[in-house]
Amino acid sequence: MKKCIVIFTHTGETSVDVVVSYLKKMGEHYIRLNTDRFPVDPRTSLSVGLDKNGTVSFHLQGQANLNTENIKSCWFRQPGVPQTILATPYGYERLAKEESKATLWSLYTSMDTFWMNNPLATRSLKDNKLHQMKAAVKIGFRIPDSIITTKADDLIAFCEIHGGEVALKMISGHVFNTGDVKNLDCVYTQKISMEEIKERKERIRWCPVFAQEYIPKKVELRVTVVNNAIFPCLIHSQESKRTLHDWRRYDFEKVKHEKTLLPVEIENKIIKLMQQLNLSFGAFDFILTPDDEYVFLEVNSSGQWGWIEDITKMPISEAIANTLANPPKS
To answer: Within 13 A of 79's CA, how many CA atoms are on the CB side?
Structure first.
């Protein structure tokens, strides 16, 4: 039996479609499980087994039985939350969802194969910026001075130390549902003054606030890493008022995106950090200061790359497909 690539994702993840197109050209056998359809959609019906020797296997509807002997690699690409049955008495739909989530997590974390990315590594990094920055410091990166607090006086003192203005950010990737699935919204990074903090002093205790020293920017970088292949993109965020503090506000008419080269020292640090965090894919965000110093902000183990690939023509999707088809031995 030809070895199989298994993709755990959700129905709306279009980046998977691009990678799959390369896998098809390469003649690779793959299975895509959209876990947001599990277990309601019959096509997602599966069995997971563990024998007395500790070998994990799973059987997906319409597919051959799979185990570590016939799985080439797995891609943990933003798997979706399992779908529940319609509301029933006694909360059975909640039970079904929790059991479905636990089943999938048991499967993910028991399979001994190459992962992009390892599910445990992905979970440990999600919404965990302090952990990421602490690891980056050990590698030798500069990071912004940071605070997470519900104490207004501490935030005011932090702001005062850093010149009366700080960058206010979200710790989590929370998205606000405005009632229209096409118009979801999030909180972007913004610069806030000490006076503005004082005006909102009484509200701070109701929700943790994440603030960092404001780092002056020459440009910003999104560096996508696939195994040991590095794809750096310069984002000229300071060319538009809209993107001064957060390039995710996108202004493609004014903000140039271009591929670039990184100093060898920075590339080496990135690879070391990937290894330390047990990642085979990472989307790094950096600031390049007016003094040409690289400042690490974060690494997203499930970051997007499609728009960068479209603009710069860097072969990121092809690199992902090649790594899944030819996984490193260790």
So the answer is: 27
DSSP 254: T
Pick the CATH number of 145-213 from 3.40.50, 2.30.29, 1.20.1530, 3.30.1490: 3.30.1490
**Cα(185)–Cα(200) distance, rounded to whole angstroms?**
22
4-116: in CATH 3.40.50 = yes
> What's the CA angle centered on 73, arms 47 and 307, to 5 degrees?
110
End-to-end, the C-alpha distance of the chain in Å comes to: 23
H helices of the chain, in order, are 14-25, 92-108, 119-125, 129-139, 152-161, 194-199, 264-276, 306-312, 316-325
Specify the long-range contacts of residues 84-90, CB closer than 8 Å, at least 24 apart: 84/40, 85/40
Q: How far is CA 245 from CA 59, 195, 306, in A?
A: 48, 19, 22
Q: How high does pLDDT run on average in the chain?
A: 91
* Global pTM value: 0.91
Burial of 233 (0-12, 13-18, 19+ CB in 10 A): buried
pLDDT tens for residues 287-320? 999 999 999 999 999 999 999 999 999 999 999 9
In whole angstroms, give the CA distance from residue 325 to residue 66.
Answer: 17
CATH number for the region 217-325 comes to: 3.30.470.20
For the CA atoms of 140, 146, 148, 150, what is the dihedral angle to 10 degrees? 160
68, 113 Cβ separation under 8 angstroms:
yes
Cβ neighbours, 10 Å, residue 3: 15
- Residue-level pLDDT at 89: 65
Residues with Cβ within 8 Å of 108's Cβ and at least 6 positions away in sequence, in order, are 8, 74, 76, 79, 119
Task: For residue 209, give both structure tokens.
Answer: 């606030």
